[in-house]
Amino acid sequence: MTHYRIQTLQPSNGFVQIHMQFRATTDVVYLQLPAWRPGRYELANYARNIKNFNIKSETGEAIPFSKINKEKWAVSITPHTNVLVSYEYYAQQPDAGNSFVSEQLCYINPVNCLLYVEGMEQLPCQVELPLTPTAKVACQLNLNGNKLLAKHFDELADSPFFIAENLQHHTIQHGTCLFHFWAAGPVELDWNQLKSDTIRYATIQEAIFGVLPMTDFHFLYLFREDVFRHGVEHASSTVIAMGPGKSMCETIAYNDLLAISSHELFHVWNIKRMRPVEMLPYDFTKENYSKLGYVYEGITTYYGDLALVQAGVWNLATYFKSLSDDFKKHLNNQGRFNYSLEDSSFDTWVDGYVPGVPGRKISIYTEGLVAALVADLFILSQTKGAYRLDQVLSEMYQLTYVQQKGYTKALYQQLLEKWSGQSMQWYFNQLIEGKGKLTDALIEALSWIGCELETHFNDLGLIDCQLKIKDNRSTEQELLFKKWLNLTASA
Ligand SMILES: [Zn+2]
């Protein structure tokens, strides 16, 4: 068991105090701080937030240590000694993947700030929280008294939490799963509407995989006063930082809140459970390179919005506007001629989350969505609406997560070919490994459902783009279009 204790002695100075206790079993132990966090595929440098690092025995004697890289410490010790590690962590980043402490809120992402002992990752972990009698705790982990319990470090690292006196908490039961909605920060929102819309899109997502694989799911909403948008997925929760919270009752902001929430829920299956073989398990010590970002982010970006229109939560105009915005981003990125989708996935570890050098690369989110849409429409058109990408995902989930395996590009290709009944070598050669072919494939795929892109240059010299239904679409195209969006025949 590794025991952690968190204190917020003076939250106004931005630091939390962290104490870690474990029993050494060898004469040298290595302490590791995660070098990155799942959901953001680049190195993080969390160690720069640590100060006053010290190690003692249980009798209070200082234990010498040395750093062997920027987030790893070596400690020489007598075996069977209880070791106490203490430090302060600067928690002043109120986004969905970092930590933030104030007088009102203690928000911790353990993956940022808790160390683990190399070789002891599989042992249970316990986190003692700084709770007042009236404080509320939002977390996917079980709370026992004032302690959160995790089966192992990996589960702890995946379990951010909010502690506050004035957290809003709403719930709704859906089948075997209780959905929790926690809100920190100022917000104006129709919670009953959000609850019912959540159930509607969750039902669509659940139908793809045939199972909702958790008994509780927690939306941890951090509402800010500025314009902000960031979400991070976890196995049975998500943190979503949005702002301004006071605008969440307005249609555009509310639709965006639904979009990010639906995206993060889809990750419950696609990345938190079904995962590329090279990320199973996650290695917190270094880069976890994968060329499959178009599966775990591209398909998720595609289905996040698709589930909203299929559920009737979004109308067609809202969905078309969202897709048009994505296509606009795609058309204005010259990187589509310079870099392939799979190489762009690999290179999130280089520059994935900043604009980077103009025209250097493409996005596993935007271009990944385009590739997912083309795959879905290809299967739909080849099978006259009998099958689609849903069947590929469902079978891949059964063959990988359910059998405790990761997926590979070869398996994904094999399943696309099985459900389309066609070779899809062209798809991988041109859209995944090739450059500059996504746009033509997108335009062709849209024609199968009787849609087209209307484009023109705006005053800034950028391409504006609108997705439209063709006036003269055939009955066959119309039927496929309705199948695509789950619209009833009379819609
Ligand atoms: Zn995502």
Defining key terms:
491 residues, Immunoglobulin-like, Neutral Protease, domain 2, binds zinc ion
Summarize the structure.
With 491 residues, this protein is α+β, with helices and mostly antiparallel strands. The protein contains 14 helices and 22 strands.
How are the SSEs ordered, and which strands pair?
Blueprint (H helix, E strand, L loop, with lengths): L1 E6 L7 E9 L4 E5 L17 E8 L7 E5 L2 E5 L5 E9 L9 E2 L4 E3 L1 H4 L2 E2 L7 E4 L7 E3 L3 E3 L2 E4 L2 H5 L3 E4 L3 E7 L2 E8 L6 H19 L6 E8 L4 E6 L3 E7 L7 H16 L26 H18 L5 H16 L9 H6 L1 H4 L14 H17 L6 H11 L9 H12 L4 H8 L5 H11 L2 E7 L5 E7 L5 H10 L7
Parallel strand pairs: 1-11, 17-18, 18-20
Antiparallel strand pairs: 1-2, 2-7, 3-6, 3-10, 4-7, 5-6, 8-9, 9-15, 11-14, 12-15, 13-14, 16-17, 19-20, 21-22
Bound molecules: zinc ion.
Zinc ion binds next to helix 5.
Structure report:
By secondary structure, this protein is of the alpha+beta class. It has three domains: 2-164, Immunoglobulin-like (Sandwich); 167-261, Neutral Protease, domain 2 (Orthogonal Bundle); 269-491, Neutral Protease Domain 2 (Neutral Protease, domain 2, Orthogonal Bundle). It has helices spanning 110-113, 153-157, 191-209, 251-266, 293-310, 316-331, 341-346, 348-351, 366-382, 389-399, 409-420, 425-432, 438-448, 475-484; strands at 2-7, 15-23, 28-32, 50-57, 65-69, 72-76, 82-90, 100-101, 106-108, 116-117, 125-128, 136-138, 142-144, 147-150, 161-164, 168-174, 177-184, 216-223, 228-233, 237-243, 451-457, 463-469. The strands form five sheets. It has a seven-stranded mixed beta sheet. A five-stranded mixed beta sheet has the order 16-17-18-20-19, covered by helices on one side. The radius of gyration is 24 Å and the shape is globular. The mean pLDDT is 97. The chain binds zinc ion (ZN).
